[in-house]
C-alpha cells in the first residue's frame, strides 16, 4: 500500500504543476493578444508631425515620377489659401496643390493634419506626397479627370 500511496502523491503533484503551466500559458496568451492589439491601434492612428499640423511648408514641394506618372505638389502662396487653386477650382486643400500628369488632384486637409483626396476618401495620409502616390496607385493607369466646377 505504501507503493500505491507514493504513486498517487506523484500524480497529484504533477497535475497541480500542469494546472500552473496551463494558467501561465493562458496568461501569456492574453498578454500577447493585448500587446498586439495595442501596437495595431497605435500604428493605425494617423500621426501628424509638428510641421504638418502647422501647415504645409515651402520645403514640402515635390516633383517626381511615381509608377510612370508625374506627381507634383507645392504649397500655394499665402494669399491663395482661400480654397481656390490656380485653376479656379474650389477645394479644401488648405493652401496646397497636387497634380498628377498636370491634372489637379482635389484634396482636403483634416483637422488632425492628415490629408484625403477624391480618389480614396476613406483613407488618410500624413503628407500630400503620400496622398499623391496612393492616388496614382488607386488610379491603376486611368487618367485623372477634372471635377466639374
UniProtKB/TrEMBL annotation:
- Cell membrane listed as a keyword: no
Give one Pfam hit by family name: MelC1
The answer, when asked if Repeat is one of the entry's keywords, is no
Q: Which InterPro entries match?
A: GriE/MELC1_sf, MelC1, TAT_signal
Keywords, alphabetical: Copper
Q: Which domain of life is it from?
A: Bacteria
Similarity-based family: Belongs to the melC1 family.
Name the NCBIfam families on file: TyroCdyMelC1
Q: What is this protein called?
A: Tyrosinase cofactor
Q: What is the lineage of its organism?
A: Bacteria, Bacillati, Actinomycetota, Actinomycetes, Kitasatosporales
Amino acid at each position: 500500500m505504501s507503493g500505491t500511496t507514493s504513486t498517487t502523491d506523484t500524480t497529484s503533484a504533477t497535475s497541480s504543476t500542469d494546472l500552473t503551466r496551463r494558467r501561465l500559458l493562458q496568461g501569456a496568451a492574453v498578454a500577447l493578444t493585448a500587446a498586439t492589439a495595442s501596437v495595431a491601434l497605435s500604428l493605425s492612428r494617423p500621426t501628424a508631425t509638428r510641421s504638418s499640423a502647422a501647415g504645409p511648408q515651402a520645403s514640402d514641394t515635390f516633383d517626381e515620377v511615381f509608377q510612370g506618372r508625374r506627381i507634383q505638389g507645392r504649397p500655394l502662396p499665402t494669399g491663395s489659401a482661400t480654397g481656390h487653386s490656380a485653376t479656379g477650382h474650389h477645394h479644401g486643400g488648405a493652401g496646397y496643390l497636387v497634380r498628377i500628369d498636370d491634372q489637379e488632384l482635389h484634396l482636403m486637409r483634416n483637422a488632425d493634419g492628415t490629408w484625403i483626396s477624391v480618389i480614396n476618401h476613406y483613407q488618410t495620409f500624413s503628407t500630400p506626397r503620400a496622398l499623391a502616390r496612393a492616388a496614382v496607385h488607386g488610379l491603376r493607369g486611368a487618367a485623372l479627370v477634372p471635377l466639374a466646377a
